[in-house]
Design brief:
By secondary structure, the chain is mainly beta. It has one helix and nine strands; from the N terminus they run αβββββββββ. The longest helix is centred in the N-terminal third of the chain and has 14 residues. The protein is globular.
């Protein structure tokens, strides 16, 4: 019952932006669960500094339930006029078909082997 209430509250928070077809999450939702319907878009926005060679990438496939759409997009933050300034990286996913997946993102260099020190972002996604 508590889990269902948590999902309901999270769903209301995510949909409060007025765009019920797009859910937006960030670091605050890490480790949580959310429910989507097929066709909805999920935007994960996380702090990043790609000028260091590090970025967020999908560690494990989640298709056909949740498919990544396009390439991650960098959104400059404050001080964007300075070379190497951090910002946010947005990753877009589309709910393809019903199922349950764990979205696992890793912050590192895609060409290097992940290490335990890499940051991870986990999100349990149920598509109904």
């Amino acid at each position: 019952m508590l889990r269902r209430a948590t999902l309901l509250v999270l769903g209301m928070v995510l949909c409060a932006c007025g765009q019920t077809n797009t859910l937006q999450v960030n670091e605050d939702q890490e480790g949580r669960s959310l429910v989507m319907t097929t066709g909805q878009t999920l935007v994960v926005s996380l702090e990043s500094n790609p000028s260091t060679g590090f970025g967020w990438y999908q560690a494990e496939p989640t298709e056909p339930v949740l498919a990544m759409e396009g390439e991650p997009r960098f959104v400059p933050g404050e001080g964007a006029e300075l070379a190497g300034a951090p910002g946010r990286q947005e990753l877009h996913f589309v709910a393809g078909r019903k199922g349950v997946v764990t979205l696992k993102l890793t912050y590192g260099r895609a060409w290097e082997t992940p290490t335990p020190s890499n940051k991870h972002y986990l999100l349990q996604v149920t598509v109904e």
